[in-house]
Amino acid sequence: MMRQNPGATQASLDFGAILDHHQLDLLAFLRGLVSDPELARDLLQDVFCDAWRASLRGDAPFVAASADTDRRNWLFHTAYHRAISARRHAGVVRWESLDAGAVPLRERLEDPSRVEDWLPEQNAAQAALASLASDDAACLLLNMLYGFAAAEIAAILDLTPDAAKKRLSRAKQRLRAAYLSQNPDRQEAHS
Amino acid sequence: MSAPQTPTTSRDSECAALASLLALRDTGMLDATESARVDRHLTTCAACQADAALDDALASHLRRALIAPPNTAPTLSMREIMRASDTAAPRSMRGAGSALVEAAERRIPHAYPISHRWGTGLSALLAAVVVIVFAASMFGSLGSRLSGNRRGVTPALTVSPLLAHQTVYVPTETGIYALRASDGALRWAYLPTKIKTSLNHTPIIRGLTLDGDMLYALATTSNNFPHPDSALLALDARTGAVRWRVAIPDLGWASLLRVGNLLIVTPAMTAGLYEMGSPFNQTLLAYSATNGQRLWSRKLTEPPLSASVTANGALYTATSTQLIALDAASGALRWTTPIVPSASQQGTMPASYNSSVALAAAGPYVFVLTKRDIWSGRTDSWEANVYEIAAADGTHIVRNGFEQEPQSAAFPPALGGNQLFAPVFGGLSAFSTGASPKLQWRFIPTGAPDGGMAMTGGAYVSGVVYVTGVFTVLDNNVEYQRNYTYAVRASDGAQLWRSQIYGDVGALTPVVASGMVFTPAGGTLLALRAADGQRLWKYPSPGGSVIYGVLIGS
């Protein structure tokens, strides 16, 4: 289990600090993309496992010389691709209750202290977000949650800054449309 | 100075022209000119004001829903990352106390993230050949019974291209996962979601069996003390869609066996903590595989202790003291025979009942592996007995007894090439079968603990037995403790290869199909190449849920 490798030579990189610094932001991003909190946590672990292996190999940006921004972009980039893969898999996963009316496991596993998660408005917003394509949702989350600029979003999603800007604009309009279409009563009020 | 303009409520051409800019308001992506234009328009257009307000509200809702409150504790620790990464930090990067953590982790089944699965590059061929092998964890099934004990054989050289058409069904404590055999890709998952007690939160899929396009599963749906419930399910093997479902009240831990068109449910006394003290179910049930109708039931005098096995139209099951033969079609009793030795060595005090029993049956014989507690002076240990019993009438042909067994659990013996492979005698032992069965060899891996190795049942294919060590072995004499799946030559017990797995005490009997060895271990299923033990892919069950067996089908 103990493998000596190039990572051992750059012990000055504090991976634990990187983990602590970025994990909650990444978890929020992943929860926005995959909806299921359990799955988001699994994906979060995957992302940091990838990062840890890169760190052990001495790969950038997990070297002392790299900027923290590069590491952050790398983590979000990896999280995005992990989430896309998970969303594809979600199409083949079937959930079924053996007990009519049972509360789904995923909902039971929600942190009960996060009572605001149950508020209808937030659920409606999340449902609208879940209906968007992965790239639209990712653009929205990166900007709405963290205020990332077009260039940063572009770096994370493999786009040009102009494309990132256009995608964000379209995504916001689609989120609004999805929200209103899923909530006809609010549509009336809105119009 | 002009009076403020009253906003219009209808959209016009400027609204359409500014829609893309309006969406970028407050994102920091508009330049000053664009911002001014948007702001100017918003003062005059109520419809766009409503859009902007909705954008703000949605952003606010999403932030509140997704972003953790201040001072929220981190979700992941470095320890979890290192453990899940299948590696550990170099010593220079570890802090004090890591040795203790490491020592503790050696005994914990590792949980893995969904990780890289590299395909084997196999192309799809035609033909669908049904290969059904089921290795049950607690009760297990028989090993493969392919004939041909050849001296000096080596494992098959290649994995079969049929694997691309084959599916690995994985029953777990949260549901069933169907994976493509060639690369472990998820084909479908069936995740029932009933929750009734705080002791065990999800239905547990205890048994799985396959018949063509139908997959049958036995699920514990409630662990309510003292009356657990189960359900028998029929699913479409291609999609996971439920075809029918039958509730089985008052049934907890149990196993499932298909005999022709019958589904046999055998309750088991092997109890988890949550079942302690509950009245044990001691009735075997037979259901129609076509529609789930119950066809017969047979109450035994004691609760069964083993899974049932079948051969030649008979059904065999064991209690703590007896082997029982039933007619599979009707459930009628054929015979019973005791399986607790009456003799014991001087100075020992053996228990009058077995603590665990596992069965195998083929041709004219039923093979029984029992484990019981035995006191000798001040020491308390396990005694194993391997019986060969005539299937026709229950006559005992031979019993081999072994003391100082390192583990109480009994995994089912495997059969192949006129040999019986039983995980006893401090490792895996091979016996000849027939009228005069004899011990042929025993395999104890290098580095096994002083008390001997505890092993899962074996899987026999073409002159090779595949088996997994339940305990870790000391590797390189000093530093490492690992557990492995081994390929052992059936003719002489020589080790052909070993491959590290991570299940430790959670390891189950391997299953072999089409040149691959599938090793369930804790929450991970490993696929190894039968030829050399090279790991081809691994499937960590989501959430690290415990895997209860493997079933291969086309």
Textual characterization of the structure:
The complex is a heterodimer of chains A (191) and B (554). In chain A, helix 1 (15-34) crosses helix 6 (134-146), helix 6 (134-146) crosses helix 8 (161-182) and helix 7 (150-157) packs across helix 8. Chain A is mainly α. Mean pLDDT of chain A is 76; it is low at 1-11 and 99-118. Chain A contains 9 helices and 1 strand. Chain A is globular. By secondary structure, chain B is mainly beta. Chain B starts with 12 loop residues before the first helix and ends with a strand. Chain B has a 5-stranded antiparallel β-sheet, with no helix packed on it. In chain B, strands 17, 18, 19, 20 and 21 form a 5-stranded antiparallel β-sheet that branches. In chain B, strands 26, 27, 28, 29 and 30 form a 5-stranded antiparallel β-sheet that branches. In chain B, helix 1 crosses helix 2 (32-42). Residues 87-159, 194-201 and 271-277 of chain B have low confidence and may be disordered. Chain B has helices spanning 13-23, 32-42, 46-66, 78-84, 98-105; strands at residues 134-136, 167-171, 176-180, 186-192, 204-211, 214-222, 229-236, 242-249, 254-259, 262-267, 283-288, 294-299, 309-311, 314-318, 322-327, 333-338, 348-350, 356-362, 365-376, 379-390, 396-405, 414-416, 419-422, 428-432, 439-443, 459-461, 464-468, 473-475, 480-489, 495-501, 511-513, 516-521, 524-529, 535-540, 549-553. Chains A and B meet through helix 1, helix 2, strand 1, helix 4 and helix 5 of A and helix 1, helix 3, helix 4 and strand 4 of B.
